[in-house]
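Hey, can you fold this one?
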Amino acid sequence: MSELTQADKDSLTGEPQDRSVEKEVQEAAPAKLSAVFPSYARYDISLVKGKGSWVWDDQGNKYLDFMCGLAVTSLGHAPEKVGAKLKEQIDTLWHVSNLFHIPGQDRVAALLTANSCADQVFFCNSGAEANEAAIKLARRYHQKVKGTGRYEVITFEQSFHGRTIATLTATGQQKVKEGFLPLPAGFKTVPLHDLPALKAAISENTAAIMLEMVLAEGGVLEVQQEFLDAVVALCKEHGLLLIVDEVQTGMGRTGKLFAHQHYGIEPDIFTLAKGVASGFPAGVMLGKGYLREAFSPGAHASTFGGTPLAAAVMEATIETMLEDNLAQRAADMGEYLKGLLGDKLADTPFVKEIRGKGLLIGIECAAPVGDIVLAGQQRGLLFVQAGPNVIRLLPNFYVSVEEIHQAVDILSELIHTYANNGKWEAGS
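Sure. Predicted structure:
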C-alpha cells in the first residue's frame, strides 16, 4: 500500500471529538517513562482511567475500548465485584510461598475443573508461562511416566504462543524469532490445515501437537472442524498429547467458556491467561488426571503463581462469568456485531471477510490497516490489528447494543473513507 498523503490522512481521521472528563484524570497523569526499554511500538496515548467499556487518557480524552487490553478486561474496566474481592484480600494477605496451602487456589481450581474437561490445575503469571508449563508437562509425561524419551512439539504457521525462548520457538511467526538464535531444539512448525505436512512431521520423538482454536494474533483464523478431528485422531494413533492454547480464546471470549468446546473435543492440556483475572497477572495450565504424576513435587514451580491476591481476582472473575452467563452473552453480542458489520461494510470490496467467534472478530481487508487503527484513535475508538491486513475487535462481554452501534458507525465511516480516498483500488 502506498503512503497516504497528508490530505488523505486528514480526510480519514477528521478532527478529534471533544471527549473531556473529570479534572482528576488530568491530575493523575503520569510522566512518560524514558528509561523503559523501547520493546513496544507504543501509540502516542497515555491511558490513566477506565470504567466499563470506556477509558480516558491523561489529556481527558475519552475512548470506546474495543481492545480490552488484548482480550484481558473481558468484564470491562474496574468491575466492581472483582475490585471488592481484591480490596478485601489486600487487607488480609498478599503473598505466601507455594510451599504452603493457599485456600483460594483450591477454590479457583474447583471452579475451573467443574466447568471443563480438566482434572488438574497449575497456576502461574502469564500466558507464556502457562504454555511453557504445558510444554514441560508434555515432555515430562513422556519421559518420566511413559519412559519414551519423546520431546518434540508440533505447532502451526501463524500461531502465537508467547515470548519466552521456548514459546517463541513454538510460535509459527518468524518475526518474533529474529535476533534470538540459536533457538532450542524440539519444535516443528507446519502449515495450518495441511494434513499431509502434519503427518510427515510426526516422528518417534513427537510428544505433542499444540494449536489454537482461533489463531488470534495470526489473523483471527478459525481451525476447521475436519482438520481438528484429524489432529485428534493422529494424537490417539501415535500416543501424542493434544495441547490447546486458550490464552486469548479462553474464558468466554469465543462464546463458550473454552473455545475447544465449540469443536466437541477434550484436549489433554490447555492453557489460560488474559481474561482469567480481569487484568491482574495470572496464567493457568490445566490437564487431565493421568498427567498428575508427571508434575510431582519439584518438577515445576512459580513463585508468584496463584498468590492469595491472584486467586482472589481469578475467583471473582470466574464466578462473575458463570453467574451472568457471559460466555453466552459474548456469543449473542458477537453475532450481533458481526451482522451489523456485514450490513455496514457489504458495499465495499476493500473488506474481504468478516470472521471470528463470539467477541473475537477479525475484518480482513485488501490492504494494510495501520492507518485505520490510528484514525480510530482520533475518533475515540480503540481497536487493534491481527497481522497487517486484519482489524481485530475485542470488546468486553457487557458491551451494550448502543456501544456496538457507536463503534460500527465509526469503523464503517473510516473504512469507507479509506477505501474511497486512499491509494487502494479494487483489484489491486
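DSSP finds 13 helices and 17 strands in the chain. Let me know if you want another pass with a different chain boundary.
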